Amino acid sequence: MDPPPHRDMAGGIHMNCLKSVRFARDYGSIRITIVSIGAMLAFFTVFYVAYIGLHPNLVVTRFNPPVFTASVLIVYPLHKLFHCLPVWAAGKKACFTVAMNDHRIPMLYCDIRQPISRNLAIACVTFPIAAVTAVTIAVCDWNPFLLPYMALIGAVNVGLSVTDCIYASYLLKAPANTYIEDFRDGFHILIQTMK
To answer: What is d(CA 91, CA 46) in angstroms, rounded to the nearest whole number?
Structure first.
């Protein structure tokens, strides 16, 4: 359901909705899943090949299936938690919650309680891909033998970031004085108007 034409705020301020985006409705779940898988494969290949190219004498011989599995499982909650960190750092309220989606699968969400500024929203959606990618590169430099695990962590994180990249593309085009109201399948871009 699309938002009402305005929201009443304190002090006689209205919030008019400039744009409403719902990922499943506007892009389709299957399309997003296919693009996410493609992004994961592309990142893993480029990251692994580029790192091996920079370290031609590196021979990766260790492989620990439990560590490999744990690496994959930790990415999703870490990614979602990283969405909340910029909101908390700005002193705003956000909840890290678990809820069932339409297919009865438990999902993690960063629920932001009130509209936030465009710049803070940009920080929220880009922080996971920037932070996790930086950590994977730093860990590989520290211990090159962890390359397969770091490449996988980075790849899964990039796959999870596909909707974040779509989100960021709208935010970067939005006027600087707008506010963003986030919800679980999308967001509203709002602008203040006086009564």
So the answer is: 37
Residue appearing with tokens 């979602």: 80
- Residues with Cβ within 8 Å of 25's Cβ and at least 6 positions away in sequence, in order, are 185, 186
91: left (phi over 0), alpha (psi -120 to 50) or beta: left
Secondary structure letter of residue 121 according to DSSP: H
pTM over 0.70: yes
Q: Above 80 in pLDDT, residue 167?
A: yes
Q: How many CA atoms lie within 13 A of 98 on its CB side?
A: 5
Neighbour count for residue 128 (Cβ, 10 Å): 23
Hey, what amino acid is at 155? A
30 burial type by CB count under 10 A (0-12 exposed, 13-18 middle, 19+ buried): exposed
CA 9 – CA 35 distance, rounded (Å): 38
| C-alpha to C-alpha distances, 169 to 118, 164, 165, nearest whole angstrom | 12, 9, 6
Pairing verdict, β 116-117 and 179-183: antiparallel
Band of pLDDT at residue 133, cut at 50, 70 and 90: very high
> Strand 179-183 to strand 13-22: parallel, antiparallel, or no bridges (unpaired)?
unpaired
- For 30, the enclosing helix (H) or strand (E) is helix 29-54
Round to whole Å and give the CA distance between 99 and 103: 11
